[in-house]
C-alpha cells in the first residue's frame, strides 16, 4: 500500500507513524508531501539587489531557478522534519515530495493521482464538521482526489492546556462523577 502523508508542519507525528505502520504492512511505502507557495516577486527582488551575498552576477534565469529550488528544499525540509524523523525512528522508509503551488488541496489531489497512492493522510487544522467544513484542505482533498483520505485531528487539548473546556468534556466529567 502506498501512503501519501501531506503536511503543512502541524501534523502530529505519533498517530501518523502508528497509522502508517498498519497501512503499509511490511511492503508498502510512505511519501511525505508538503505544498510550498514560492514568493517569487520577493525572491526576484532580493536577487536583483546588489547587496545580496548569494547573488550570481549573471542575471540568468538559471540563477533565479536555483534560488527558488533552494527556497523550496529548505522550506520543505523544515516543515516535514518532525514527520521524517518520527518515521525514520520507527524504521518506516519515506520519500519527500515538494509541491509548489498556491492551492494546497489541488496540489495534494494531483500528487495523489500521479503517484497512484492508496490513501492520503492529512491533518485537520480546523473542525471538520462545522459550516465552513467544505472549505478546508482536508475536505477538498476528500472530494477532489478520488482516494481514501484519513484525517488525523490535532492533539486534543486538555483542561490543563486551556482553561476552557468543551461541552463534551463537561458531560464526560459529570458522568464519570456519578
Query: Roughly how many Å apart are the termini?
Result: 46 Å
Q: Assembly type of the shown chains? A: single chain
Number of strands: 5
What is the topology, as strand order, of the major beta sheet?
3-2-1-4-5
Helix percent band: 40-55%
Our count of helices gives: 6
Overall morphology = globular
Mean pLDDT over the full residue set: 77
The CATH first-level class comes to Alpha Beta
Question: What is the string of helix and strand elements?
Answer: EHEHHEHEHEH
The secondary structure category is: alpha/beta
Low-confidence stretches: 59-63
Beta fraction: 15-25%
- Per CATH, the superfamily is HUPs
Number of domains: 1
CATH structural fold name: Rossmann fold
Question: What composes the largest sheet?
Answer: 5 strands, parallel
CATH architecture: 3-Layer(aba) Sandwich
Describe the structure.
- The chain has 178 residues and is an alpha/beta fold.
- The protein has a single domain (2-177), classed as HUPs (Rossmann fold), CATH 3.40.50.620.
- It is 46% helix and 18% strand.
- It has helices at residues 13-24, 40-48, 61-89, 104-115, 137-144, 167-177, and strands at 2-6, 29-36, 94-100, 119-124, 148-153.
- A five-stranded parallel β-sheet has the order 3-2-1-4-5, with helices on both faces.
- Strand 1 (2-6), helix 1 (13-24) and strand 2 (29-36) form a beta-alpha-beta unit.
- The chain is globular.
- The model is unreliable at 59-63 (pLDDT under 50).
Amino acid at each position: 500500500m502506498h501512503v501519501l502523508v501531506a503536511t503543512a508542519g502541524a501534523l502530529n507525528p505519533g498517530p501518523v507513524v502508528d497509522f502508517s505502520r498498519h497501512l503499509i504492512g511490511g511492503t508498502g511505502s510512505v511519501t511525505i508531501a508538503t505544498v510550498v507557495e514560492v514568493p517569487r516577486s520577493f525572491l526576484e527582488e532580493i536577487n536583483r539587489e546588489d547587496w545580496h551575498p548569494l547573488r550570481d552576477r549573471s542575471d540568468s534565469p538559471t540563477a533565479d531557478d536555483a534560488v527558488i529550488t533552494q527556497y523550496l528544499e529548505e522550506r520543505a525540509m523544515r516543515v516535514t522534519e518532525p514527520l521524517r524523523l518520527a518515521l525514520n525512528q520507527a524504521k518506516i522508509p519515506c520519500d519527500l515530495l515538494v509541491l509548489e503551488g498556491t492551492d494546497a488541496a489541488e496540489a495534494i489531489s494531483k500528487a495523489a493521482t500521479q503517484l497512484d497512492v492508496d490513501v492520503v493522510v492529512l491533518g485537520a487544522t480546523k473542525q471538520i464538521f462545522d459550516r465552513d467544513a467544505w472549505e478546508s484542505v482536508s475536505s477538498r482533498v476528500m472530494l477532489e482526489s478520488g482516494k481514501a483520505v484519513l484525517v488525523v485531528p490535532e492533539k486534543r487539548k486538555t483542561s490543563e492546556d486551556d482553561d476552557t473546556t468543551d461541552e463534551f468534556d463537561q458531560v464526560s466529567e459529570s458522568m464519570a462523577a456519578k
